[in-house]
Amino acid sequence: MQLLLNVSVVGIAKEAVTMGWLESTIRKQRNNIEAILIEPLSQVAGVCAEHWDNRHKLDIELKKYLECNKEHRCRLLYAIDKQGLQHSSNVSDVDSDETRIGQDLSNRPYLHFKYDSDQKDFVLSDVYVDKQKRKPCITALHRITLNDEVLGYIAADFNLNDLPLKNVDEPQIQEWRQIKGDPSIRGTLFQQLRTRSAMDEHLDEVLDVVESLITEQGIFHAKLHFSSSRATLWPYNDPYRYHLHVLDEIINPKVCLVYAKMAYPGDASISANIVPKILKVFKSLREADETIYLRAASLNIMNGLVGLNFSCDGSHYMSADEFMNKDLNFWFG
Cβ atoms within 10 A of the Cβ of 316, count? Predict the structure, then answer.
């Protein structure tokens, strides 16, 4: 049998759709940051143009900008000339560092642009990790011009978490994602056979308990580790802490006493009657083949997402609806 060869192309296509959502969300956040910063940086760029040849006055104006725009919490402000050399001091809330004047910044990722008439006045860098602070940062640059002559750019460094990032919604439709695992495991796949775990010996009992916990006792996310005989559960009323149960605990119905009875969430993405059907397919994928088999599986009823990890160390994430539309031939055909 050759696991998942018939779904690899589908996985790649679905991956592209999901990446499209990711890129769209990043673009919206960048547009939001640009809308916040472009006007104040435009103003300071105009002032800097007037004092471009007077570094002392230039530093004073940069300091004024920081004092008047504290809500943006700019970490560092400085001017750069057309050649990519630093033209001003490094100005921060704390001090002004003149030793940085003249340093070559032309190799910085955010300076990979051309100083020509077609270039936008405002440039926002990609997110990068600051070498000293080890924190995600972003740099905003605004072109400085005087009488239509480009003098350079004003650069403003921000810690990403100091900017008012908007909350974004998860994609409503969870598209298929196929992720390859450890190549060394995939390379020796056909040299191994499934060893029946302790959970395999009591799988029906485990699945019955897990079904009850999900449909009647507020567990919204459950992951079953078949090979290592354990389960991790996330309660709806305490979602920031997951609970770990070894086989002796999850096999015994009295574990249900740990979780209060709770109505099935009204905002769940899948109905309660689908849960036992999904768990039954988990069992089938676990037992279908002695070489290619399910090592772990998860179900999240809130986003309707199923996760699968196979013996080849390949992982798949898909909607519960899509998962239920596939038979064993789809996986092992």
Answer: 20
Helical pair 203-216 and 275-287, crossing angle rounded to 10 deg: 150
Domains in the chain, CATH or no CATH each? 22-162 (3.30.450.20), 173-332 (no CATH)
Distance between CA atoms of 165 and 297, rounded to whole angstroms? 34
Low-confidence residues in the chain, pLDDT < 50: 1-17, 114-117, 173, 181-182, 184-189
Dist. CA 330–CA 279, nearest whole Å: 18
172 DSSP assignment = S
Can you read off the two tokens belonging to residue 235? 């309660």
Q: Is the separation of the CB atoms in 120 and 113 below 8 Å?
A: no
- 288 DSSP assignment: S
Per-residue pLDDT reduced to its tens digit, 179-202: 554 454 444 445 566 667 888 898
- What is the distance between the alpha carbons of residues 269 and 243, in angstroms, rounded to a whole number? 22
Supply the pTM of this predicted model. 0.66
